[in-house]
TrEMBL record:
<keyword id="KW-0560">Oxidoreductase</keyword>
<dbReference type="GO" id="GO:0020037">
    <property type="term" value="F:heme binding"/>
</dbReference>
<dbReference type="InterPro" id="IPR012347">
    <property type="entry name" value="Ferritin-like"/>
</dbReference>
<feature type="domain" description="Ferritin-like diiron">
    <location>
        <begin position="1"/>
        <end position="145"/>
    </location>
</feature>
<keyword id="KW-0479">Metal-binding</keyword>
<dbReference type="Pfam" id="PF00210">
    <property type="entry name" value="Ferritin"/>
</dbReference>
<dbReference type="InterPro" id="IPR008331">
    <property type="entry name" value="Ferritin_DPS_dom"/>
</dbReference>
<feature type="binding site">
    <location>
        <position position="51"/>
    </location>
    <ligand>
        <name>Fe cation 1</name>
    </ligand>
</feature>
<keyword id="KW-0349">Heme</keyword>
<feature type="binding site" description="axial binding residue">
    <location>
        <position position="52"/>
    </location>
    <ligand>
        <name>heme b</name>
    </ligand>
</feature>
<dbReference type="InterPro" id="IPR009040">
    <property type="entry name" value="Ferritin-like_diiron"/>
</dbReference>
<dbReference type="GO" id="GO:0006826">
    <property type="term" value="P:iron ion transport"/>
</dbReference>
<comment type="similarity">
    <text>Belongs to the bacterioferritin family.</text>
</comment>
<dbReference type="GO" id="GO:0006879">
    <property type="term" value="P:intracellular iron ion homeostasis"/>
</dbReference>
<dbReference type="GO" id="GO:0005829">
    <property type="term" value="C:cytosol"/>
</dbReference>
<feature type="binding site">
    <location>
        <position position="54"/>
    </location>
    <ligand>
        <name>Fe cation 1</name>
    </ligand>
</feature>
<dbReference type="GO" id="GO:0004322">
    <property type="term" value="F:ferroxidase activity"/>
</dbReference>
Amino acid sequence: MKGDTQLIATLNSLLADELTATNQYMVHAEMCENWGFEKLHKTIQKRAIVEMKHAEKLISRILFLEGVPIVSEYRKMYIGADVPKMFENDLMLENGAVKSYNTAVKLARDVADNATRDLLQSILDDEDGHVDEIETTQDQIGQMGIQVFLSTRVE
């Protein structure tokens, strides 16, 4: 099925976002593991896997629309030097994703591609959940202090 060219370009832009997010989360997860925060490592690693699955869905949809997935483009990664900075950078990433997916959902609706709209909406729902998770973690850090918070993330 030949898809709308602007929508395919938007899907490729979202793909670059997802590939970047996957890499940023993997680096943050591995840093946490290196520091001995195994529970934090697992949490961030799970988020990276969700982002990787988003990328896979976008690739599949681009191919279905007879587009060419561009997997060689990435955005700038923001690697935090410590746990609070990681979450600050990750929140910035997720807030950007929410904005981009909202715009993409509108575009898909405007070009009457409801299947793509539904796919984008499901990913948007995941991204909203990531924002909530990160904000909750930041609240915990603020209320407990970083030392107490990190002591709860060791196995």
